[in-house]
């Protein structure tokens, strides 16, 4: 053995010896800490350790009570059989909605009868009012399935969700005016107004609320939701409201198309993936649009019925099961339904979308604290504040894979100011988020399964999906895929769920382009 090797072996054995001493000291400390910590916390389960010769008895406070867990599981789990019933019921409701107006599923004809070829060209404006933000976009379509987008984004305040329609639409027009002027290049200072007057623009308006669409560029708003209660919007033609605001602000803009975000998503995804037949939004709200054969839309009496083979239908699936016949709802879901506007409306959406999931979880947590099943040191005024538990917190908690659930601790103790949480508490909250998040994904999958089955597309099609839940919520897409497999069996492999992007901007511009081609 050479000198170097001898040093190596000596070093290695000394290292092992030092490590094993350190390890025994460490294990001793951990055991001591476990015992002391356990003896401090009560009530907790008693666990008998069979590790040593003398049996050690200690209290374990790391696992939530199995009784509580079982109760929550049975409340929030939707099994395969139920999923299948939901699918069947949705297909029945889809047929009814296509037959006549005034049904639970609105099944709104979008008046969009063409899908893009990817060869569309031109520059279009797009406005996007979705829920949380208002965006102004300029989209330049390059004719090769590509687009350049410039945009400005504005958060919609609570006050704006309450102001009269004209004031809100004046705000939109002001944003557009500013955006256009900012985009002027090579226009001398002081000449912006003249340039503005000399030019005209074509625009697609994404208005992501239920609208009874009477033409590609006409539609009466029938229901808003998402916290919007502006007097003067429901019952009005939103294109007229926008066009009048442009007039008041001296803007030469022609609104060519009124678009739902789901229709925009379908079209913008079809621009890059021609097998796309379905567009879904899973975000603040949820909804779906798909391509339906014209002969299957008996209630549609427009001119297009004569020559067009198909039309995109905006399902407004958020209101599915408003008559409450198929989806089991917990007392917490009912509480959320009562406390958000429009009680009894948007049943499906209230169980699925980002606007509501956090509040469902909060109601359960508050109840568990009241029953002494969680946070023995008590809750907090922040936790009792309506809507304080954001759906983004659920994402963060579900993404927390640390041993001690440290990120969950930050959410609970730092953001919600819960005085003290145990590992068992944090595990319980994490399980609760998983249950509510999983139920949302499984219900969304049931919706997609119903649509592809109704379309007879089980042999293959692409579903473009946009929205923060699908994009950012951990495991959401995998959970949807699992549920699709449970419902559709092997055919689920033919249904491709893909992240779609910017249907509300690019999609609206494309629909304006398609509408323009038809003129
Ligand atoms: C709501 C709206 C619907 C929209 C969806 C997603 O359900 O009623 O039109 O598509 O939210 O934004």
UniProtKB/TrEMBL annotation:
It catalyses: D-fructose + ATP = D-fructose 6-phosphate + ADP + H(+); a D-hexose + ATP = a D-hexose 6-phosphate + ADP + H(+). One of its GO terms (biological process) is glucose metabolic process. The keyword Manganese does not apply. Its EC number is 2.7.1.-. It comes from the Eukaryota. It is an enzyme of class 2 (transferase). Keywords: ATP-binding, Glycolysis, Kinase, Membrane, Nucleotide-binding, Transferase, Transmembrane, Transmembrane helix. InterPro entries: ATPase_NBD (IPR043129), Hexokinase (IPR001312), Hexokinase_C (IPR022673), Hexokinase_N (IPR022672). Pathway: Carbohydrate degradation; glycolysis; D-glyceraldehyde 3-phosphate and glycerone phosphate from D-glucose: step 1/4; Carbohydrate metabolism; hexose metabolism. GO terms for cellular component: cytosol; mitochondrion. Coiled coil: none annotated. Residues 69-271 form the Hexokinase N-terminal domain. Residues 277-514 form the Hexokinase C-terminal domain. One of its GO terms (molecular function) is fructokinase activity. The chain crosses the membrane at residues 6-31. Belongs to the hexokinase family. This is Phosphotransferase.
């Amino acid at each position: 053995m050479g000198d170097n090797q001898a040093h190596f072996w000596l070093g290695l054995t000394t290292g092992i010896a030092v490590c094993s001493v350190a390890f025994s000291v460490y294990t001793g400390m951990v055991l001591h800490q476990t015992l002391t910590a356990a003896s401090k916390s009560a009530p907790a389960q008693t666990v008998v350790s069979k590790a040593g010769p003398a049996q050690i008895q200690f209290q374990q406070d790391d696992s939530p009570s199995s009784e509580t867990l079982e109760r929550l599981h049975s409340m929030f789990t939707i099994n395969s059989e139920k999923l299948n019933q939901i699918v069947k019921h949705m297909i029945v409701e889809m047929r009814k909605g296509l037959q006549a107006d005034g049904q639970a599923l609105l099944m709104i004809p979008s008046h969009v009868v063409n899908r893009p070829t990817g060869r569309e060209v031109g520059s279009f404006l797009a406005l996007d009012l979705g829920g949380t933000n208002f965006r102004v976009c300029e989209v330049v379509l390059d004719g090769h399935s590509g687009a350049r987008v410039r945009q400005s984004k504005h958060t919609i305040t609570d006050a704006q969700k309450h102001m009269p329609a004209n004031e809100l639409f004046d705000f939109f027009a002001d944003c557009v005016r500013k955006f256009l002027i900012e985009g002027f290049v090579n226009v001398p200072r002081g000449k912006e107004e003249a340039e503005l007057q000399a030019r005209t623009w074509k625009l697609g308006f994404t208005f992501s609320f239920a609208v009874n669409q009477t033409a590609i560029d006409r539609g009466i708003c029938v229901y808003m939701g998402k916290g919007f209660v502006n007097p003067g919007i429901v019952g009005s033609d939103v294109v007229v409201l926008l066009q009048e605001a442009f007039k008041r602000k001296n803007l030469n803009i022609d609104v060519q198309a009124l678009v739902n975000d789901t229709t925009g998503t379908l079209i913008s995804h079809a621009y890059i993936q021609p097998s796309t037949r379905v567009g879904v939004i899973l975000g603040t709200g949820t909804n779906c649009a798909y391509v339906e054969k014209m002969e299957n839309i008996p209630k549609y009496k427009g001119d297009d019925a004569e020559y067009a083979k198909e039309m995109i239908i905006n399902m407004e699936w958020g209101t599915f099961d408003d008559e409450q016949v198929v989806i089991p709802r917990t007392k917490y879901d009912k509480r959320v339904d009562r406390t958000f506007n429009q009680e009894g409306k948007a049943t499906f959406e209230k169980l699925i979308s980002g606007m509501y999931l956090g509040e469902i979880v909060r109601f359960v947590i508050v109840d568990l604290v009241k029953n002494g099943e969680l946070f023995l040191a008590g809750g907090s005024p922040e936790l009792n504040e309506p809507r304080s538990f954001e759906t983004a917190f659920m994402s963060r908690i579900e993404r927390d894979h640390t041993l001690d659930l440290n990120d969950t601790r930050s959410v609970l103790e730092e953001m919600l100011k819960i005085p003290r949480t145990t590992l068992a508490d944090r595990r319980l909250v994490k399980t609760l988020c998983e249950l509510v998040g999983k139920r949302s994904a499984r219900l969304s999958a049931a919706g997609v399964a119903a649509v592809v089955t109704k379309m007879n597309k089980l042999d293959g099609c692409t579903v473009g999906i946009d929205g923060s839940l699908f994009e950012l919520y951990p495991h959401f897409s995998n959970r949807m895929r699992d549920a699709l497999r449970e419902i559709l069996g092997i055919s689920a492999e033919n249904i491709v769920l893909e992240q779609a992007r910017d249907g509300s901007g690019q999609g609206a511009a494309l629909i304006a382009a398609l509408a323009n081609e038809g003129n």
